[in-house]
Amino acid sequence: MHVQLMRKLAEKIDGIDLSEQEVGDVFDLPEQKARMLVAEGWAVLERRTHDGRQLVLAFRRRDDPGPLSSQHDSDVSRAS
After folding, report:
1. Neighbouring residues of 14: CB distance < 8 A, sequence distance ≥ 6
2. What's the pTM?
3. Do the Cβ atoms of 54 and 48 come closer than 8 Å?
4. CA distances, 12 to each of 31, 32, 37, 77 (Å)
5. Which residues pair with 61 in a beta bridge?
6. Strand 2-5 vs strand 26-28: parallel, antiparallel, or unpaired?
7. Could you tell me the sign of the dihedral formed by the alpha carbons of 5, 6, 10, 14, in that order?
8. Who's near 8: CB < 8 A, 6+ residues apart?
9. Could you give the CA distance from residue 29 to residue 2 in angstroms, rounded to a whole number?
10. Alpha helices, DSSP H only, in the chain?
11. Mind listing the pLDDT tens digit for each residue in 21-67?
12. Which of 63, 62, 45 is nearest to 54 (CA)?
């Protein structure tokens, strides 16, 4: 399963060796390891469309409001 590394804080994350990868790299992992990195926010799934263009599928945890939610907007305005 192809994933794109979105952030990297160590050479090994959850027992997965990332010493050869940099943020932004797309690489192949066994499905279980790929899904673990995606679930924990380290990577996103990478797919190709029928015409060969790259399609990146990003998923967030249910409790993560994300940068475009109204909850995030109110958090930012309170911080100002």
Report:
1. 33, 36, 37, 40
2. 0.59
3. yes
4. 17, 16, 11, 37
5. none
6. antiparallel
7. negative
8. 18, 21, 22, 23, 42
9. 6
10. 31-39, 70-79
11. 999 998 999 999 999 998 898 998 887 555 656 555 555 566 665 55
12. 45
7: its two tokens:
């952030």
Own/partner long-range contacts of 25-28 (Cβ < 8 Å, ≥24 apart): 26/2, 26/54, 27/2, 27/3, 28/1, 28/2, 28/3
CA distances, 56 to each of 35, 44, 51, 59, 74 (Å): 14, 7, 14, 10, 28
Report yes or no: 39 and 31 within 8 Å, Cβ to Cβ. no
Distance of CA 57 to the CA centre of its chain: 9
